[in-house]
Design a protein that fits this description.
The complex is a heterodimer of chains A (116) and B (117). Chain A is mostly beta strands and 116 residues long. Chain A has no helices and eleven strands. In chain A, strand 5 (44-50) and strand 6 (53-56) form a beta hairpin. By secondary structure, chain B is mainly beta. Chain B contains no helices and twelve strands. Chain B has strands at 3-5, 10-14, 19-21, 24-26, 32-38, 44-50, 56-58, 64-68, 73-78, 87-97, 102-107, 111-116. In chain B, strands 2, 5, 6, 10, 11 and 12 form a six-stranded mixed sheet that branches. Chain B has a four-stranded antiparallel sheet with strand order 3-9-8-7, with no helix packed on it. A two-stranded antiparallel ribbon of chain B has the order 1-4. The chains are: A mainly beta (116), B mainly beta (117). The interface between A and B is medium-sized, with 32 and 27 residues.
Chain lengths: 116, 117
Amino acid sequence: GAGVSQTPSNKVTEKGKYVELRCDPISGHTALYWYRQSLGQGPEFLIYFQGTGAADDSGLPNDRFFAVRPEGSVSTLKIQRTERGDSAVYLCASSLRSRGANSPLHFGNGTRLTVT
Amino acid sequence: AQSVAQPEDQVNVAEGNPLTVKCTYSVSGNPYLFWYVQYPNRGLQFLLKYITGDNLVKGSYGFEAEFNKSQTSFHLKKPSALVSDSALYFCAVRVLRVSTGANNLFFGTGTRLTVIP
């Protein structure tokens, strides 16, 4: 399909481990966002990429979280020394361009992360 | 500060009846408002948006929303509910951060709609 693809769909890890979550945006979409959705909550912004650069990482909760997008397409969200509080669904979204408010965000199905 | 409120955690409606899911917003400047729907184990799907123009916006699957500036509301509506409309609905406001160019979406906490056969 032509939608946003996220892998894995589910990830269970032990406290203290390192995880990587992958997002493959819609082809041609230059803007890419990561959101985190905790149980019973709406998605919360983590980080935004325009092209290869992280233009806004103000939503990352602490320095254990990091994301890259080296070639301006696929992005990887990396979490070090995971904690139980990191358990959530991590959503990726892409859009044609960022400055145009007319471009809706297209979301992937998310990665459900469970830290035990 | 920008915020969105969805005052109802749960809305139940009988199949065939009209439905309304409420949303109010608080933004500085012009609001760009969106509705998304989330089905179980799925990502959010775009339903409709208000940027400017007519206050009544029509979207996917027969949904529409009415922008009311004086009441700062953007309620989602549908004239006749279907059982398949049962899902989690999120209202969101889009805010452009000039310093970074990010067009972030700020979401409400969601409203679970259940359509009863």
